[in-house]
Amino acid sequence: MKKQILIAGIISMAVVSCTKSTTKTETVENPDGSVTTTSTTITQTPSEVVDTSKIHQTKEDVKAKVDEAGNKIDEVAQKTKEDINKAGKDIKKGAQDASKDVKDAAAKGAGKIEEEAKKLKEDLKK
């Protein structure tokens, strides 16, 4: 949709720039003392014919550039999506590793507490 609007704007600017309008106003005093005002608009077009092949070529050039820009945007968006997915997988793996480390540390800590509790119990029996 944006492409069509852009192309239509370029074509309309080319057509408008080829036309020139001038308005003339004449005031005439009649013999009876009344005044008559006449306005005339003169529209001039260039004496040379508009080369439509140049307009079509410009239109195609603009369309190609817009398509190229759209493709580049799509490529960047795809790469960004892939990078985000990779980062998400890395974060998930890191979180799993950290979780495993915390569980291991908690198990070791619990084992040491049990050993110390047994020692304390034996010491109290003596």
Number of H/I helices: 2
Order of helices and strands: HEEH
User: Are there runs of 5+ residues with pLDDT below 50, and where?
Assistant: none
Count the beta strands.
2
| Euclidean distance between termini CA atoms | 90 Å
Largest sheet: 2 strands, antiparallel
Q: Strand order within the widest sheet?
A: 1-2
Beta-strand residue percentage? 15-25%
**Which bin fits the share of residues in helices?**
over 70%
Radius of gyration (CA) equals 42 Å
Q: Please tell me what the overall shape is.
A: rod-shaped
* pLDDT averaged residue by residue: 82
What attributes does this structure have?
126 residues; alpha+beta; 2 helices; 16% strand; rod-shaped
Task: Write a brief caption for the model.
With 126 residues, the protein is α+β, with helices and mostly antiparallel strands. Helices cover 71% and strands 16% of the residues.
Description:
Helix content is 71%, strand content 16%. By secondary structure, the protein is of the alpha+beta class. The chain has a two-stranded antiparallel ribbon with strand order 1-2. Strand 1 and strand 2 (35-44) form a beta hairpin. Helix 1 (2-16) runs antiparallel to helix 2 (52-125). The longest helix has 74 residues, at 52-125.
